[in-house]
Amino acid sequence: MTIRVMLVDDQALLRTGFRMVLTAQEDMEVVAEAGDGAEALAQLRSTAVDVVLMDVRMPNVDGVEATRRICAGGEGGPSAPKVLILTTFDLDEYAFSALKAGASGFMLKDVPPGDLLAAIRAVHSGDAVVAPSTTRRLIDRFSTVLPSATSEPLARGLERLTDRETEVLTLVAQGLSNGEIAAQLVLSEATVKTHVGRILAKLGLRDRVQAVVLAYETRLVQAGGGAA
């Protein structure tokens, strides 16, 4: 299966570099490019895309707003593409907003080509791609944008979880992978994956990125990485 990719960045040189990397892959094809969010949204109305590589700071419609419209189902038809944010560490506040808007993950623009390709494939398959260490830095640095008090509706949602599921969610929010969680809780990785799937289903979340955001918004985990 060929993964159809759209490149959205206001720097043509960066788009050229990414296109060269992607088109060299047998399972990827760059089907569209755009210089800002407005152009990307317009192209999605007539072009089938699986994964959008989205910059955040762009003129007209920025990447956060474009991501919000795509993930809300307003653009891209019934099978809206997945969005992978490309940013720099100095702009992580934008990446956090994009994750809340529905992006499936984010990566730094200086990511090694192999990691970028792996991320595109992971997002296309339905996984989220936010490196655990980056998740911790992101939440720690921008905890001030999170609610100052627990959101009651969100907190009530956590009551649906079993004690074990709450434990797993806490570790997910601390940036641990399934394998690391399995080792810490002395479980099989398959069991942890099952727990994560049940957590997402019970809370109505799309992926573990949304689970991380929820855990911090409800103060299940405090900024700094520890359980509340």
Automatic annotation (TrEMBL):
Which part of the chain is the HTH luxR-type domain?
Answer: 154-219
Which organism is the protein's source? Streptomyces ovatisporus
Q: Which residues form the Response regulatory domain?
A: 4-124
Tell me the PANTHER family matching this sequence.
TRANSCRIPTIONAL REGULATORY PROTEIN NARL-RELATED (PTHR43214:SF24), TWO-COMPONENT RESPONSE REGULATOR (PTHR43214)
The UniProt entry, under SMART domains, shows: HTH_LUXR (SM00421), REC (SM00448)
- Record InterPro entries: CheY-like_superfamily, NreC/VraR/RcsB-like_REC, Sig_transdc_resp-reg_C-effctor, Sig_transdc_resp-reg_receiver, Tscrpt_reg_LuxR_C, WalR-like
Under what name is this protein listed? Response regulator
* 4-aspartylphosphate: residues bearing it: D55
